[in-house]
Automatic annotation (TrEMBL):
The gene is hepA. The chain crosses the membrane at residues 18-44, 50-68, 129-150, 156-179, 249-282. It comes from the Bacteria. It is a multi-pass membrane protein. GO terms for molecular function: ATP binding. Gene3D superfamilies: ABC transporter type 1, transmembrane domain, P-loop containing nucleotide triphosphate hydrolases. InterPro entries: AAA+_ATPase, ABC1_TM_dom, ABC1_TM_sf, ABC_CydC/D, ABC_transporter-like_ATP-bd, P-loop_NTPase, Type_1_exporter. This is Heterocyst differentiation ATP-binding protein HepA. It comes from Paenibacillus pseudetheri. The lineage of its organism: Bacteria, Bacillati, Bacillota, Bacilli, Bacillales. Keywords: ATP-binding, Membrane, Nucleotide-binding, Transmembrane, Transmembrane helix. The keyword ATP-binding applies.
Amino acid sequence: MNELAVLSKAMIQERKDIILSILGGFIAGIAGVALFSASGYLISQTVFGPPLYTLIVLTSMVKLLGLLRAASRYGERLYSHRATFSMLSRLRTAFFAKLIPLTPGILNKNRSGDLLARIVGDVESLQNYFLRVAYPPIMVVMVFLATVLFTSTFSIWIAVLFVLGMLITAFVVPGIVLLGQRRIHGRVREQRAQLSTEVTEVLYGFRDLKVYGQLAQREEQLQHASAVLAAEQQRAAGHLLRGQSMHTFVTFLVSWGVLTLGAYLIMEGALAGVFLAMLVMASQTVFEEATAMATLPSYKEDSEHVAKRLTETVQPFDEQSSQPSGTLSVNHAVTMELSDVTFQYEGEWRPALRDVSLHILPGSKTAIVGPSGSGKSTIIELLLKLRTPTAGDIRLNGISVKELDESSIWQTANVVFQQSHFFRGTIRDNLLLNGEEYADEQLLNMLAKMQLPDTALTDMVYEKGENLSDGEKQRLALARAMLRKGRVWLLDEPTSSLDYVTEEHVLKHLYAQAAKDTLLLICHRLTGLEEMDQIVVMDQGKVVETGSYSELMGQKGYFYKMKKIEQQMIGEVGV
């Protein structure tokens, strides 16, 4: 499959360890066959009362072969597993690197639990590709070939019997296992993905489920899904066990065949009797290398299925012709221009933006206002190249975003989203996400500017900021953005959870720092917009008005009506 090309590439990169593991496995396999063959020959020789030196030589050979087998088997395990873990590391890094540019769009197509299962479980499952799929056939061919050549020097007919047994264990038994496994393993994979998805959603929504009294019902659903998965896994394990049992049966059948055929050849004078035990012991040992062939189809199908899921996840990234190399300067303010931009979310019946055209001068301050769902936040996502316009063009400093590297845009922008993410750690950890070093005095000074004077840098922050209020999250997110050195500010409702007094103090420091930078502010509140160079009013994905605060108030259009409504509501609250 084409999906497995990435695995083959990873194996090539670890070729040194793979070659060493193959060499160790071959030596271990041959040493095992030689060990048991020598043991059988030693047993046969003792019957005829050989000279003492013969027994000494054979006994010493058995001991040396035992040591050689153990040492080479250890080397095989060491290098094969090191190669496997290195390949997993490369695959996980490569997959995550391809996944990052696809956000947030990919989160709208995949449930978070399913995506997590692919990142963790599916990549982890690929460890079986080398150990259980690619490696066993190599060992079977090499060890069997050497054993057959060795056996043919004593009897060509027993060598033919070995070849026949090899064909049965390498092809017939795996084929029988393959016939019944596809349906069973398909159900196991589906049920495992479904369980991972449901568990993740219950963890995310635990508080709401508890409040609305639905937690017990969801727990029952999880228990049922878990029971179904356990039952399917038990069926799959039973099917693999039957395959291994068939392999063991064929092994003993071949050994009995060697014993019977050897006895007949001895009677006919075509084989010396002293070699019979040696050949029987060799047949018992050589088929150990073919044991993994019984389960190979299962692991192969699993690897192909997992590789296909991972490929489908990042397919949009792979279909891109090339990674653009254009960059933005971090030392100058940026001009932003949208020309007839239209954007429609996948599956939506109407576009979020329709023929939007904007021109934002470098060093200017622009506010975008309008009712919820008018497309304001979508503009920021398009400017950051998190989404691609359905039609139209977006240019930064005269360069189309299609030609700009995403990392260059992100490095230039100081961004605050409506919902900022916080990682489990300290306040200091969450402030220093950009990797730059700041003294504690600088960090504390920034927190004071954001009206967080009593916050210590060592205070703990829970995952997603669960122990912070919405206002604290917004101020901490603003502090984090103000510690960056970008010349573009993209702010999406950064103070919506703050009271008017705190908001005024916070924005004062923000505007002072961004005095010579390009600033784009999305907001619902209309207070304080007098300082904006340009105000853009949007409704239902279209720009309905553009101008300064005084111009829009003078026109007495959409913005004027919104301002009057806000003043009335503030007046009522004051009363």
